[in-house]
């Protein structure tokens, strides 16, 4: 196994990680932004007000995008396991 192969596998792993995490991060970011605008408009400064909607948004996003995430992860792992013989020999 060459250093270039190791770097390529690491790059693929980081790409898959970012693709899987992106929908959850985006949901939390958008929800936090909307709640912050609401808090600024109403001058309600309650810290827990932003926590519960973010958790709900992440949960809904996980339900909606979960099958796609699982497919992405299983495809990556299948490719990794299938490439083991080529990497060893």
TrEMBL record:
One of its GO terms (cellular component) is plasma membrane. Pfam families: Bac_export_3 (PF01313). Keywords: Bacterial flagellum, Cell membrane, Cell projection, Cilium, Flagellum, Membrane, Transmembrane, Transmembrane helix. It is found in: Cell membrane; Bacterial flagellum basal body. One of its GO terms (biological process) is bacterial-type flagellum assembly. The chain crosses the membrane at residues 16-39, 51-73. Its main location: membrane. Belongs to the FliQ/MopD/SpaQ family. This is Flagellar biosynthetic protein FliQ. It comes from Denitromonas halophila.
């Amino acid at each position: 196994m060459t250093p270039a192969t190791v770097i390529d596998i690491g790059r693929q792993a980081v790409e898959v990680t970012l693709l899987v995490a992106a929908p959850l991060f985006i949901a939390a970011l958008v929800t936090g932004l909307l709640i912050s605008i609401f808090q600024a408009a109403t001058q309600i400064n309650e810290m827990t007000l932003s926590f519960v909607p973010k958790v709900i948004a992440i949960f809904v996003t996980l339900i909606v995008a979960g099958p796609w995430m699982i497919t992405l992860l299983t495809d990556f792992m299948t490719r990794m396991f299938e490439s083991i013989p080529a990497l060893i020999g």
